[in-house]
Request: fold
Amino acid sequence: MLPIKRLLLYKPQCMEKWWWKIVCILLLVYTITAGLLFNVPRKPIIQESIRNLYFHVCMWFSMMILFTISVVHAVKYLRNNNLRSDILSRHYAVVGIVFGVLGYSTGMIWASFTWADPNSSSFSSFGAIAKDPKLIGAAIALLIYFAYLVLRDSINDLDKRARIGAVYNIFAFAFLFPSIWIIPRLLESLHPGGQGNPALNPQDIDARMRLVFYPAVIGWTLLGVWIVSLKVRLQMLKEKNVLES
Amino acid sequence: MLYYYTIASPQNFVLAKLLFNSILMLVMSALSMLLFSLFMDYPVKKTGIFVGIVFLGGWSLSLVFTFLAAIAAKAQQNAAIMAILGFPIIIPQLLILMKISSGVFLISGSVPAINISLLLVSDLLVVLLAIILFPFLWKD
Reply:
């Protein structure tokens, strides 16, 4: 019964500190206004839609950061057998998936104006777009995490579910790197960045865009963390109700 | 399972499973390659490389599915769970295998070495992960 008692007394430190939520809101407001109003370099074909960088690429960065936090909590669970780490790990994975799906949707919107627009010179048929290695790699990453959620739901015992979920979480995280980062770099792709490190390389991204991009990544990640903290608090309340009734 | 606790450490156990399944898969791949070449046309132009690719592919699949079977065995043996867990992980391996095997059917076809090394590295990754993570699955 002891671990359950510790679980009920859980009061996340982030609840008492509210400053980072204000920072999150300010950063996102800055991202949206500056993203749409500041000057951007006009590349051929992409033109002004390069502003989508602040949304599409930021979604994927936030997803990676949230999955990293999820795997850290999974490792913590395996070391300490504290169910709180398991709950955190699950919710971070879920919000990471949501950000991944959002990244996919923003990518689709972007592609409909650049790759799929028949009037632009980089027009590719739907088949060519669907075979893009980065798209396939990202879809595989999302599918692996969906399988993680299915696995968790198929086990009834709490401790077993947490343990096996943590093991699969580490396995899934290790597979993210080959499928999203390594394989698309090696195969020819419609995506930019076949040579070197796109978006992180200081020479690759214009200084004006960097001004909005880095705060945007932090803002979107903080939003993800905020959503997770709310979900975890809700889960704790539900469990408290179940145990007290 | 309690009996296995007493005689072997989890790392030895999972290595033994991986090794057994690899050998089983190699034997089955060799057999099916033999049967295919007997009953159907033989369009392969570079036999040595093709045999190597068949073994590499069989080995990669067997490693991944061995580890997934260890996970699924703890998840109440739901029949569909193996397929759901395995499907996304297998896709990149199958894609790379398709890419490298397309080179053996033409005399001038090239088999890029970097893809082969990528497959080998991902196999190594799976083996290492299995060795590190299996002790946690093992205890009940």
